[in-house]
Amino acid sequence: MSDADATSLKRPSGSASGTSAGELNNLNNVHIGEATTADMHYNIPNKIPKTEKCATSGISNIKLETNLGIPRRLYQIELVDRILELKGANAVIVAPTNSGKTLVAADILKNHFDKVPGSKAVFLVPNGLLAQQQGEALGKYLPKANTKVLRGEACTSEQINDLLQTTDILVMTPQILINAYDDAFDQDKPSFPISLIVLDECHHCVKKAPYSQLMEIFHLHLPGRPEPLPKLPQVIGLTASVRISTSKTDTAECNIFKLLANMDARLVMVEKNKDELAFYCAPPEEILVEYKDRFQIDVVIKPRKKKADLAYVQWLRNISTKLISLIEDAECKHDLVSCVEYLDMYNNSLMLNYECRSTDAYNYLKERAKTLMYKESRPESTDAWLADKYKGKIGTIEHYLCSSDENSWLAVLKEHIMKTKKPGAPMRCIIFCRTREICSALVDWANDSEELCDLNPGFITGSNASTSSKGLTNQQQNEIKQEFLDGRRQILFATSVAQEGVDVKKCDNVICYNFTSDMVARIQTRGRARKSGATYTVLATKQRLKDEEKSKQNEIKQNEVLQKIIQMPHPEFTRLLQREQKTLLADLRNNAILEEQKKQNHKRELQEQGKDYSLICGHCSDFAFSCEELRKVNRHHHVVMDEDFLKTRVDLDLGTFVGEKWPMWFQFAKMHCKNPKCRRFLGPVCHYNKKTYALPKIEMFTVVAPNGENIKTLKAWKDCPFHVERFQPENPLFERTIDN
Questions:
Q1: Which residue windows are coiled coil (predicted)?
Q2: Pick from 73, 196, 197, 686: most CB atoms within 10 A?
Q3: pTM of the full structure
Q4: Which class does domain 285-292+407-562 fall in?
Q5: Cβ neighbours around 107 below 10 Å, total
């Protein structure tokens, strides 16, 4: 694209970013295409402080045309100008939700393409749901740029390079790019023709999150490599918040500098057009409503965490990953797993009974118990004892159902859902809930309500869970989101998956239903209320309202510290940033060296002893495979090489067809534990490049050390204490296929 492809920018004399609010009255007839700004209509917030109304009296009809040929506000132009002034340096743009950061990013991309013809860019988002949305937005704002959205987690370096031959902008999650860089390092060709990377929701660039892993590649592995490696790409971060966990100024400032150091970036915010920014991005009206606890739960043995709470769910998971996996006796281990499954079932039922109808909790209990009692068990076994305990309480539960009152929480929820509903006019209401099961149950409740059923309620949850656990596929997520955008669904119950970046301009009502979290989540959740005059309501218990107030105070402190940093003299800012970078790089280098040395030494010791790690079923403890049988394909997918594994150690469900699970990986079967009393799901079986691969899921297994001790259940392959070699294509073991 060239400058001739876009309509030229028409600004008043001087920089638009320096235009004062008083001068805006003289700009009422700025020419934009065939119309003037006087002919354009915008939604203006109804509730604006009087001082802001006075200061921004000339703003209501002002938008200026930019390099894109699309109208822009003055504060958006200011942000783009500040990025251009950095001349290729990295930056973090902090601006409120609904301020048009995606439009700003598109303008930055257009300027970059004009300056460096033929250059390539990557736009990264934290999840697949956002990838589709941002890809469509960039396609709209940059129609002459070829934009492609990638989904999944695996792409070889060759595939990325091939795509960049015909694509200007790749939109993807960061893990795809990390995997591609890993593959490129293995081939000693860590070079992609990428000159600009945009990190959307860059507040995730902390600790070991994917954004942070990507920056670690730029910090440690690319600098100092021999030519012809091109220079590092410019990185632009976009966020409405930075992650702080305290209201102490010094600690909050340190947290912000850690983010900037990790991205090697300057801080960019609106400074000259704050009045206009506040005018267009006025937050919704906030309403807090306290719920009284419905009932108290009496227990004989108190667990470490309160029942009917997500903390209890986490406590159960810790038992599974840290305690059960350390038990060597197979029968004892099986019994504890069964107990945890029943406790999880009861806890989810209690949460449903707290926040939904008792019938919803009972229906969930019946369905979940049916799957748990399906397992084969001896009459005297723990499974049989747990099943008998459940059956013995069914009569009591059914009697309670007949005598229980309607949940008063739901009446309050219905009132706040309907408060923005106007006769004959559509509405958009998002209700954030704690779990997938609660979302699903509330949809059933809404469909049974005369007032709500006509609004066609639906729910949106993450794609990592199975359908039986109320998870949605990527396609289902996009379909439901589109129905909500179009108005075919006017009520959407959602988990945290919809917190970030989901842009629904007509959303006029956001409700947190006993759903509170940290400061970043509060800002993101509230930011879904986009329409003028929208409301943000928190319906929660007393303790959760205290958490909400704490998050609010942290947000105030964040804004104070950001203003302090943006006003720092350049030498002072540079000194603090370099100090934090020095600490960061030293820690990264030391950790990388120590980790690699530890793994190599450990592997050498095991080889000398003729011993190695093995993996057993995380449920019944039956042997599955040794780590020597593992290989990595594309540096990401872990596969079992032993040709007898699929034939003798697992059962295959060949009737399950999912299709393309990852790019070019086609699932056609599922593996289950061979033990008839277990039948635990162990992972998918896929075709890739006309070959068959068994891909075990590490979280389904327990790792056994060479000395026979069990290691806690791992969440990801990267946490393994052993080294896994790359797949060698010439190995004949991979030439086999499965006979159907």
A1: 542-609
A2: 73
A3: 0.75
A4: alpha beta
A5: 27
